[in-house]
Every structure is written in C-alpha cells, then in structure tokens.
Write a structure and sequence with these properties.
Layout (H helix, E strand, L loop, with lengths): L1 H16 E2 L2 E2 L6 H16 L4 E3 L5 E5 L3 E10 L12 H12 L8 E8 L12 H7 L4 H4 L10 H7 L9 H7 L3 E9 L4 H5 L3 E7 L1 E10 L3 E2 L11 H19 L10 E3 L3 E4 L5 E2 L2 E10 L2 H21 L3 E10 L2 E2 L2 H15 L4 E4 L4 H5 L5 E6 L15 H28 L4
Bound molecules: zinc ion.
Length: about 425
C-alpha cells in the first residue's frame, strides 16, 4: 500500500514537471518552484508546514515525544532533461515516512528535508544547500557564479527569497537540531545492483576523491629526424603513467570486500605542440582516484607518484603534480548501516553492500550526525537522462525496505533515549 502510494506520488510529480525530454526541475527556476509548491500541497494535507532555512533548504517537522530527531529527505531539483527518480525517489519515500506517523505522536521528532540545488546543474556548485547547512560552503566561493544565460547565482537566489550572504546561517540552524540520524533513499545511478540482480542495497559511504593534473615536460622535436632513444617524449611518459595507474587501482581493489573496489580515471590528455610530425614536448593529463578507505586512497596516490616519477625517468622528462580537488571518504555510521542491512534483508532475503561513487547530500551530513543511505536498482545504470528508470517491483521493494529502516531507526533512537546511551 505505502510503496504504491510513493510510486503514484512520483508519477504525479513527473507528469507535472517533465517534458518529453525528461524532468525539468532545475534548481532556483520556475519548474523547481512548482515542484516545491506541489510538495507543499502534500504537506498541507498532513496538517504540517514547510519552513525554509537560510540556505533555501525546506524543512518539515513532526514533533515527537522526544526532541531527538530522525531526519529523512533528499532533493527535488533535477538536471535539465533529467530522470524521474534522482532525488524525487528519496523525497517521496521520506514524505511517506512522515505520513505514516501523523496519526499519533512519534517517540522521537521526525524531520523531512528537501535540500536546495543538490545537482549544481545550473551554476556548477553541487550540494549547495546541504554544504551551506554543513558549514562547508563559503559565500565567497560562489558569489561570482553565473549560469549559461549570464544570470548571477546571487540574483537567482534572491528570486527564491535566499540571501547569499546569509546562506551559511543554515549551519547554526542545523546545529540547533538534536539530530540522531539522517536517512536517504536514492537510485544507484550505476550498474552494480543491476549486475547482481538486486532491487536494493546498503550504501557503506561515499568515495574519497584525489584529483590531480600531471604535467610532463620533455622536448618537442622533429618526428622524422629524432631517433627514438634520443627523444624526450612527454606523451609516452604520461601514457606509461596512465597504464601504471590502472594497474595500481586493480592491485588495491578487493572485489571480495564490500566497498573494496577502487577506481582511477585519466579523463583529459593534452599534448603540445599537437602536430602530427612533432614529438610531444609537453603532455598534461588528469588523474582522478577514488576509494572508500582513506588509507587505501593515500597509498594509491603514493604509488601513482612513484609510477609517474619512474615514467618520467624512463622518458627523460620532468613531471609536476597539481591538486585540483580532494575530498576525504565519508563512511556511513556503523549502527545505521547494520539497521539498513536488517531492513534490506527482511525485504529481499539477503543484503548487498556497496559504496557510492557519486557524492550526495548525505555525505555533507556525515561530520554532523549518524548517516546512512539506501540505493535502489538503476536500469542500465543510467541517470541524469530521461531513460533513467527502475522497474516498479524493484522500486516498491526499495521503498518498503527504506520505510523499514526509518522504523528501525526511530525505535533505536527512542531506545537509546530510555537507556541514556547510544547516539
Ligand atoms: Zn540525486
């Protein structure tokens, strides 16, 4: 019953906010506002109200017997021509979790949150609202952002009643909540659950990322006149490093261990002078390494540096590293992971555990409260496109498992209250 109602809500939202090209709930725009207005209608029906924080995240509170709070939520915004489930699934499942408790006073307080601008699709800053709430955002870092039409972020925010300079107040507002758990259901957006034929799985945490640009410098030379042993070919050094990094990732992967697989990607390669008859004197390449465990990520990076030095020596070139971005792995709370495993097992007979490659609002909450996420099967691993889908039976299984998780968490937090221990 409950899961069917969630799917019906998802279809209603999709019908209201999609074109034949997909979902159009771009953050801070009119269709997104419409989706929030629609959600407000659902909340009104429950006799509750929406309260925005300073960053434009929308909150709904269902007071319980205790101020200890379990937070459920996700995001309503989508990329342009997006799918019907990314963010929306978590929102509708969270709405249902609240709905299930409106008849009586729950033992703990429940809050629903709709994070603003998770996607960063318009201004390029993902997790904007949740980063403001977690204290990770600075106004300076986003003040100059504009969209493709030249609209400034600060003006788009103002259209939605959000003042850029006050967005970071959302952090103090979050800290006032006696938050004991944050629970988010999301589509996997990848092929792992599908490959295992599992409708739903437990997320262990989000990958840490080490992202660098490597610059190899040798000597450009004529391709006809320079014998191979006398060359200082910057591209070959980069290529050798890229192949070595692939081996490093395979070596550090533990396919037998949940979340044990690590990845690395060379996504950008530029050579100079970029002439078919010239040995490349300069080669720049990106290296993006990801792992769930901080020590593993650090070792992968150390190994890559060693490999790059070796490749540079072999090709008589130099190499310099520049860090572009890094984020530490954000492992989820062990107790909540266990409750999530129970919920998935009760619904499906066993439990699949996997890490999240993409970042989510949930990752922003990790330093502030116990967090866990649950993933639902993604057909063909596709997301951020109109083909994004989950077969309805799998969708309903994941929703039921999530609602079980919410119940288990409420009981656990309430119990901890009685015993005066736990979270
Ligand atoms: Zn999402």
């Amino acid at each position: 019953m409950n899961a069917q109602r969630v799917v019906a809500d998802l279809r209603e939202l999709a019908a209201l906010t999609s074109t034949p090209d997909g979902a159009q709930r771009l953050a801070w725009g009119p269709v997104w506002r419409q989706s929030r207005e629609w959600l407000k209608g659902k909340i009104d029906e429950l006799g509750l109200r929406i309260e925005p924080d300073s960053a434009g995240n929308n909150w709904v509170t269902l007071p319980g017997a205790s101020a200890k709070t379990v937070i459920v939520g996700s995001h309503l915004d989508s990329v342009p021509n997006g799918g019907w489930l990314d963010g929306a699934l978590g929102m509708m499942a969270a709405l249902e979790a609240i709905r299930m408790h409106t008849a009586t006073t729950p033992p703990v307080t429940l809050k629903l949150v709709d994070w603003a601008d998770e996607e960063g699709a318009r201004f390029g800053r993902s997790l904007l609202g949740s980063a403001a709430a977690s204290g990770e955002l600075t106004a300076e870092s986003v003040r100059e952002l504009t969209d493709r039409q030249g609209v400034k972020l600060v003006d788009a925010l103002a259209e939605n009643g959000v003042v850029l300079e006050r967005m970071t107040d959302a952090h103090a507002e979050l800290k006032k909540i006696d938050a004991r758990a944050y629970l988010e259901l999301h589509i996997e957006q990848g092929p792992v659950l599908e490959s295992l034929q599992k409708p739903t799985g437990v997320v262990l945490g989000t990958f840490g990322v080490a992202r660098h640009m490597l610059r190899f410098v040798g000597q450009a030379a004529h391709s006809g006149s320079t014998p191979i042993p006398m060359r200082r070919d910057a591209f070959l050094a980069a290529a050798q490093t890229a192949l070595a990094c692939r081996e490093i990732a395979l070596r550090h992967s533990r396919p037998d261990k949940p979340g044990g697989n690590v990845v690395c990607t060379v996504g950008v390669v530029n050579v100079e002078p970029k002439i078919v008859t010239a040995v490349p004197g300069i080669c720049e390449m990106s290296l993006d390494q990801r792992a769930l465990e901080a020590e593993v990520l650090a070792q992968m990076l150390a190994d890559a540096r060693e490999a790059a030095d070796r490749a540079a020596r072999d090709n008589k070139v130099s190499v310099e590293w520049r860090e572009i971005w890094r984020i530490e792995p954000r492992p989820f709370d062990a107790t909540l992971v266990r409750l999530c495993e129970e919920a998935v097992r009760e619904e499906t007979g066993d439990t699949t555990r996997l890490p999240s490659g993409p970042l989510h609002d949930a990752a922003e909450m990790v330093p502030h409260m116990p967090v866990v996420m649950m993933f639902a099967y993604s057909s063909n691993g596709l997301s951020h496109c109109k083909e994004e889908d989950t077969p309805v039976p799998h969708l309903e299984t994941s929703i039921r498992a999530y609602l079980r998780l919410v119940e288990k968490t409420i009981r656990h937090v309430a119990q901890a209250e009685v015993q005066g221990s736990g979270f």
